[in-house]
Amino acid sequence: MKTIVVAGHPDLEHSRVNAEFLSQLSRTPATIHRLSESHRNYDFDIPREQTLLAEHDRIVLLFPLFWYSMPALMKKWLDDVFLPGFAYARGGDKLAGKEILAVTTVGAPSAGYRAGGFNNHTIDELLRPLQQTVRYVKATFLPTIAVYESVFIDEAAIKAAVAEAVPHMIGRQESPDQLYEKMLLKAELAQIALISA
Questions:
Q1: Cα distance between the two ends of the chain
Q2: Do 69 and 16 touch, CB atoms closer than 8 A?
Q3: For 142, which DSSP code?
Q4: How confident is the model at residue 178 (pLDDT cuts 50, 70, 90)?
Q5: Model confidence at 12, in pLDDT bands (50, 70, 90)?
Q6: Which pTM value belongs to this model?
Q7: Which of 15, 36, 179, 191 is 20 to 30 A distant from 48 in Cα terms?
Q8: 169, exposed or middle or buried, with CB in 10 Å at 0-12, 13-18, 19+?
Q9: Which residues cross the membrane (predicted)?
Q10: Number of domains into which the chain is organized
Q11: Which residues are registered as beta bridge partners of 147?
């Protein structure tokens, strides 16, 4: 599986967690694509961007959560690159069947992202527009990975959180869906064995 990590942090020089992600990912086979270095006056080379996505099986969108969404730079990239004839509409099947994974860093604690928490919604709920975009282009949206308290946690905790996430990002660990399917199969086989006994 070929993985590309599209890094949407607009200012990696002032990032702790996103920068650590890129540092650890640089030791993997994943392609790292920094949007902050891939535009000229916020104009992207659209054919190049589309070719990069077409060449990979998994697209990881790495970004800090800005006002409950992705940063403006990444949103502009998405608007500019996911065009008709490429991502949807007639002939727009180049992302169909690909896996898309959102990895986001969040300043607040996870307790704030739930019903009754101070942000009222989970990360998955807040990222529904992205989930629907992925579905619309006939790709598969993988379960979101979030690193909470990115403003407060110390360097050791950052390194540990990133080290745990990276194997999932590059497809070396089973996703929650795969683990669930295995659990169902195991239960099914146990039931068959019980009936046969």
A1: 41
A2: no
A3: P
A4: low
A5: confident
A6: 0.87
A7: 15
A8: buried
A9: none
A10: 1
A11: 105
